[in-house]
Design a protein that fits this description.
Largest sheet: 4 strands, antiparallel
Oligomer: single chain
Radius of gyration: 13 Å
Order of helices and strands: HEEEEEEE
Distance between the termini: 41 Å
Strand order of the largest sheet: 4-1-6-7
Structural class: mainly beta
Helix content: under 10%
Number of strands: 7
Strand content: over 45%
Shape: globular
């Protein structure tokens, strides 16, 4: 593992607030083959703080949730 992980991945955080019951959060790995490595299920009002790391390259969110990051805020699950 790199000693300078903050330089490589900037330790970016996202905040996910469930707006309905059953919101799924899925962490995906880095590397040649992208794989699921972590899942969480949130109910309405619950908040989850996630960080992009040397292992986590992407986060998939299923359901209605408010997602906040350094890039702004978005609502998922709206059709």
């Amino acid at each position: 593992m790199s000693e300078n992980i903050n330089e490589n991945f900037n330790g970016s955080y996202i905040i996910i607030k469930a707006l309905e019951n059953g919101v799924n959060i899925i962490g995906l790995t880095r590397g040649r083959d992208t794989r699921f490595h972590h899942t969480e299920k949130l109910d309405a009002g619950e908040v989850y703080i996630a960080q992009f790391t040397e292992i986590t390259s992407a986060i998939k969110i299923k359901g209605k949730a408010e997602i906040s990051s350094a890039y702004g805020r978005i609502i998922s699950g709206i059709q």
